[in-house]
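Troubleshooting log. The previous run stalled partway through. Resubmitting the same two chains, unchanged.
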Amino acid sequence: MLRLAKYLKPFTLGIMIAVALLFVQAMSDLALPDYMSDIVNKGITNGDSGYIIQTGMIMLLIALVSASCTIAVGFFSAQIAAGLAKNLRMDVFKKVQGLSNNEFDKFSAASLITRTTNDITQIQTLMGMMIRMIFYAPIMGIGGIIKALSENVSMSWIIAVAVIVLLGTIMIIFSIAIPKFQSIQKLVDRLNLVTRENLTGMLVIRAFGTERFEEKRFDKANADLTETNLFINRIMSFMMPFMMLVMNLVTVLIVWIGAKQISAFKMEVGDMMAFMQYAMQIIMSFVMLSIMFIMIPRASVSADRIAEVLETEPTIREPHSSKTFSNDFKGTIEFRNVSFRYPGAEEDVLHNISFTARPAQTTAFIGSTGSGKSTLINLIPRFYDVSQGQILIDGIDVREVKTHDLRDKIGYVPQKGILFSGTILSNLHYADRNATLDDLKAAADIAQATEFIASKPEGLETEISQGGTNVSGGQKQRLSIARALVKKAPIYILDDSFSALDFKADAALRSRLKLEIGNSTLLLVAQRISTIMQAEQIIVLDEGHIVGIGTHKELMENCLVYKEIALSQLSKEELGA
Amino acid sequence: MSESNNNLKQQQPRRGLMGPPGRGIQMQGEKARDFKGTMRTLITYLSEYNASILIVISFAVVSTIFSIAGPKILGKATTKLFEGFLAWSNGMDFLTDFNYIRNCILVLIALYIISAIFSYTQGWIMSGISMKITYQFRKDISEKINRMPLKYFDSRTHGEVLSRITNDVDTISQTLNQSLTQIITSVATVLGVLVMMFSISWLMTLVALFIVPLSMIFIIIVIKRSQKYFKRQQEHLGHINGHVEETYSGHSVVQAFNGEEDSIKKFSEYNEKLYGAAWKSQFLSGMMMPIMTFIGNIGYVVICILGGYLAVKKTIDVGDIQAFIQYMRSFTQPMSQLANISNTLQSTAAAAERVFEFLNEEEEVQEAKKPVKLDQIEGIVEFQNVHFGYSPDKIIINDFSAIIKPGQKVAIVGPTGAGKTTMVKLLMRFYDINEGSIRIDGHDIRDFTRSDLRGMFGMVLQETWLYNASIMENIRYGKLEATDEEIIAAAKAAHADAFVHALPDGYHMLLNEDASNVSEGQKQLLTIARAILADPKILILDEATSSVDTRTEVLIQKAMENLMKGRTSFVIAHRLSTIRDADLILFMKDGDIVEQGNHGELLAKGGFYANLYNSQFGTNKAS
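Second attempt completed without errors. Output:
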């Protein structure tokens, strides 16, 4: 919680005003019973109607003051809470934008999303409440105690007993209920998991005829959840009747003891009635406080999660003094003895990699999953930094230029076709805002996307929903290839971007690429031999080592791993051997 | 809880205690289309618990009546006390009737304790009922899923169905658990309090009744205004969440295209708008309480003045003022609850409607009356003039006929999106064909029971499905009564044994929720083992494409060959070697089977298949 305290600073004045207003509010609220007591003690006892009306008017005035204060506090607390959330959200978002893939791996994207959205909303809710309740309750509680003591010391023990009994019960109930609350979340997750499995595995379940088995599995999750829910509901439904009972008994007790005191001339009737109200105010403020203290730990979990993000330093940093690429940019990429290890890992995933990828050539990477192909190419745009060695582009270490300049030179196509919500057009424009419509169309054509775009009634204006869920996997890949092409970059990196394309589209795309971006340096990761057979240079990776560099023909002759891969996919005649 | 000021006593249970302040306002949710009908159905669900609900209602009423009686009795005690006091101040002896006061207090204590016991018992029973109904709803929905045709799920996301099991059922449960008793106690309180107030003074009651609608009008005005901002806030929150989600999940693309600045700019715009709506909606909804309190206070003062005046005229007693103030306080709470109840019921009806709608969806077509039972299955599959379309006006498979002999291999080939899995779905009767027939060993598949029919098939799909249990249990899924030895034998035949042994805990390793602790290829091996264990006569296989590494792919290939031995198999093929070896190739395009024959025949034909084959290797020849 305290880690975010500095975010309160801009609101110091607002908070101070709010506290001052709360003080006035509490004082007005506490004054009202006094006047009521006066009405009974002086007005009614003496039959003085004028006094009653006059006092009543004063009470109305005080009530008006109290209401205005509450509204003003509401105004400040709403602005402070929303403002705090706004600033936090902005800072977290900016921070995350600058994080490198290392940090994304560490937190996971899903967790970062929750931290930017739900966690901050939690803080906002708590903040709004905190100002109104946390500050108000103690002022009210202490004020009430002072008033009650000034009214009658000898009855104050009733209040003390009531507070102790109530707080004790609340604590006991919560100490039983809170662990159960936590297990509820797990049980709900379990129920969701089983249901989701039932939905995703519908074909399999029906094929194996295991519907009864699944129903039993669901039933178990359902029964567990129901049982725990029932327990919690029953425990919690104890709270209200019990609290009402305690408060009712307190009033009864006050009347009983008050009656004796009045008959002993120690107290007036109006005072007794006022004392009842103070007792209620004090008890309520303690209850409020105890509930706040139960809520704070939950919010502080959120606060810690936010602070964790804000305190993270990105591992990819901008160079202190940056070099710039020459105007005559070629795009020669050289790996010089590069090794890479994920932070915290025990072993390198890439060992001593050296090769050169030249302009106007295709350099392809092949190898089994986990051989380090994707990791290798992710080092070029500095999604990760090398652990050892150097990556040079046109002779300059990638860590010595601004990341912005570096990435400007690269057209990157991710493994999964990632699109953003908007239209097909806006997604293509993402690479270059100034690209003309003809540029975009040409890129889409090379990427073999023209046909499916034309088949949509809205054409290029077709809406893309969030996550691109309304286009198929193959269409997503085509669009993300087209997007990269719009950039007209001197270097292209395609990370297994053909996997969802059928043979025909794959072949057509390759031949067009050769034709249209033949002058660029093309790096290509693939699983299918047929995709890379024509590359000028094929690099075969196995467990992070380069085990072969050469053309298809050369590798077929002298690289065992390559040959094994090739033979598993195609027959000898097809391989043109 | 600022309204607790100058409360003599809080009479009415405050359900909102645990919630955030201002929870009293409920934002207008969605509405049910058929409110009455849905409610009627919901009530029939409740009818099973008629006796218990009757007890709950009577307990709630008794508890309310008992607690309403309190202030009046307490007021009498106060009056007695005041009378004694007054007598003394008029120069007489202080003759407080302590016996009377003690009796009053004893009665009160008894009333309060009984009221608390009844109130708790009522809550205890009601949570039992609502939990049982919630459980039943969930159970019904989950069983319903298994009986529904696949078609239903084509047009709906999993999230939609999930939200019925969780959110919608929760909404119903909440209403049953809280709102039901709330309605009863609120109505009882309002009526009871009115009676008590009239019994004290009709004049004061009329004044009080004038104030209540006044506060209602204010509340409605504030709710109307804040609702506008609340909606806007939700909308902007949605924008922000959407933007965050896609920017974070596409982080590397954002970085690669230097899109950070644009993204931050867009976020900042959304954030600014959210801020505006957020503080306004919070402020406006926060205004409710003070306004209500203030109006309550006006009433309080007016009653004090009026009561004082009447007391002076001896029309009422001092204790009556005290009691009346308490009653007035306990009047506003149930009134605003009752005002909210229509909202609550509306959103409950909307949730219940969705649940009932789901439960009433059409189920898979009934089974044959006299199903065929076969002891021995050969595995002859016959398609006779099959016509099929996902919707009747859009037939995609036109007049397809073929005979597949036992042990033959059929390759289904075609570009992505050509509908290759349609064949699979037809064979296993996930969909029914529109015309013609599909026969197995000479019997129409519609003459088998679904479970018998599906039992003949084994299925290995590229999109593997495993569940959150141990590897052992996942393989056992193919045959639930299989012994551990059988499972290990199946794993060995599927070439899965070796990698399973290398895993921590071996066969007992738990697969995590998305089964991501084994690789894609390993998952496929496990599903093959599962199919081997099931020992089906006819196989449906989906060949792995890119997501599997080459070495595992070789293993999968071998495992599939093991599996296919002696079984009729349908393979959705990507690998040309598999296609070439097939006894029959079905070439699919736009959902229809446009060509059939073996590799040689189709090449000679020079159609789609030949075109695909040549395009794959055309460039190869050119180089």
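Takeaways: The first strand of chain B starts at residue 381 and ends at 388. Residues 34-201 of chain B form a domain with the ABC transporter transmembrane region fold fold (CATH 1.20.1560.10).
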